[in-house]
């Protein structure tokens, strides 16, 4: 029976071996997955909102949650109770410690892995510090808030050799994998155009300043971002429909929980929220998701922003959702491939080649080449070629990689290549002009203002040290 210390040493040794491989890529296949209940990794969940709590629930199948951390104590209390129930029900009750400062988790030597389900603007700082402290990390998408953060986290992942899995679970979804396999098989001919539908961003009326909830450490929630007041309004108050969404509009408006994604200070709107998934798959399809790969240019062809931007791309109002409501950008890749990323039409990816087209999203995969699979199936080993073996649930893949030290399904290199396309698209939209991207050297050409938008200042005390 392994103690916690010896289990940790085992994981560290495996990691050191893997990090010695070229360029920091994880290639070792020699370490078998641990099966003993006593060898389950100890896991902390940092950021226990909707998604982080769900990731943690899935993680209880493969590891023991020993710590939860959230800047809102009501969220950490909820997550702790949920994990306690789940782990006790399966006879694996363990003590779960609660924190409101992630640094206490980073400092714990007995924790093997971190699930980071915080808001986007905290992802890189927390993930980088966790990796540097020797932990493996499953971080929610989008991993980065800026192009510069992509450079930082890639460097840390390569230097530490730890496992870093991004929460883009479409990479562990057989339907999307099938789309990649069909495109790569040549059945669509030469690929010409991919249309990536992400849906509209919601817009809001002004959201008033109010006192933050007592359970929330608002200053720490803001972390590296600007010091601004908390805003909230119950939707429907005084008969108002405050937030216009594609759904039933029954959500509250705020610049915090869940709604942060519609504020460019904290996220990138649908462009990064859904683009992290669909642009990622689209770039995989055209083999443009490796280090140094990516678009050549990004051109906004339609923008409808309810909050106008100034000449430096900054929103001109500070009290309402500012991710542009509607947008279409044309992203040009090498080999004359056009990717249209748009808020219009169906959510999903339409892939068009000279010999055929298919459409894929979370509910369907369709088109003549799919119908043809009945009489002309893909080779029996197609999944092996794309995924490396039978598809497992995405969090499961992370835990498999903790044991095997293999590269996870959503690694840092592929994710950064595709999320950079989303960041570039947002920069082009905010400036309303075409930008040229040098993927090899990771820079925007001949545009000082656009180049300056590749990074953001961190609030004093929240810098990322690498
Ligand atoms: N993979 C997917 O399909 C998917 C789906 C939904 C959300 N997400 C991603 O998950 C992340 C969270 O989204 P959500 O909808 O759960 O948002 P949320 O607002 O419900 O949850 C975020 C949580 O992080 C906490 N937090 C913020 N800063 C923190 C810090 N420094 N330390 C600890 N906790 C902190 C917040 O208090 C909150 O509880 C986002 O990055 C989002 O893009 C991914």
Give a written overview of the molecule.
By secondary structure, this protein is of the alpha/beta class. The chain has two domains: 4-169, Rossmann fold, CATH 3.40.50.720; 170-388 and 412-466, Dihydrodipicolinate Reductase, domain 2. It is 32% helix and 17% strand. The chain is built from 15 helices and 19 strands. The chain has helices at 4-19, 50-59, 73-89, 102-107, 123-132, 147-160, 174-185, 218-222, 270-273, 275-285, 368-371, 382-387, 394-404, 412-431, 448-452; strands spanning 42-46, 64-69, 97-99, 113-116, 136-139, 164-166, 191-197, 203-204, 232-233, 243-244, 253-254, 297-304, 326-333, 337-342, 348-353, 357-360, 365-366, 435-438, 443-445. The strands form four sheets. Strands 17-16-15-7-14-13-12-18-19 form a nine-stranded mixed β-sheet. Helix 3 links the parallel strand 2 (64-69) and strand 3. Helix 5 (123-132) runs parallel beside helix 6 and helix 6 packs antiparallel against helix 14. The two termini are 37 Å apart. Residues 1-35 have low confidence and may be disordered. The structure holds nicotinamide-adenine-dinucleotide.
